[in-house]
Amino acid sequence: MKKIIKKFKNAGEGYGAFLTSLTSKSTQDFRKKAMNTEIGNQVVDTVLPADTDTWETGIKRKGIWIIVQQYPDKKSATKGHAKWVEDITRNPKIKLKDIDLWNIGK
């Protein structure tokens, strides 16, 4: 499976999608389908956000969200979420790499 399903051409494109999502009713609705697991002082959160419309897992560590993976569908997202929960449980200091969804790192 590809690690990154959807990537914005630039931060402006991603920012525009994010702002558009804030005005839609789906901003609150998408949390209803979220998978959220707290492990110690970390959070593994898998959701279908309105701004990307692509399932993704983010891990909150030391107050910072790191988007670690995207998925083509909910079934893959559920499996991915379980994998990240297992990885963080086994090794809470596992190295995390942000997928740089909005190409901010370039």
Query: How many angstroms separate the termini?
Result: 24 Å
Shape: globular
Q: Say how many strands there are.
A: 4
Mean pLDDT: 80
Total domains? 1
Q: Which class do the helix and strand fractions yield?
A: alpha+beta
Taking pLDDT < 50 over at least 5 consecutive residues as the criterion, the unreliable ranges are none
Strand content: 15-25%
Helix content: 25-40%
Read across the widest sheet, the strand sequence of neighbours is 1-2-3-4
Sheet with the most strands? 4 strands, antiparallel
- How many helices? 3
Give me the strand/helix succession: HHEEEEH
Radius of gyration, rounded? 14 Å
Gist?
With 106 residues, the chain is of the alpha+beta class. It has three helices and four strands.
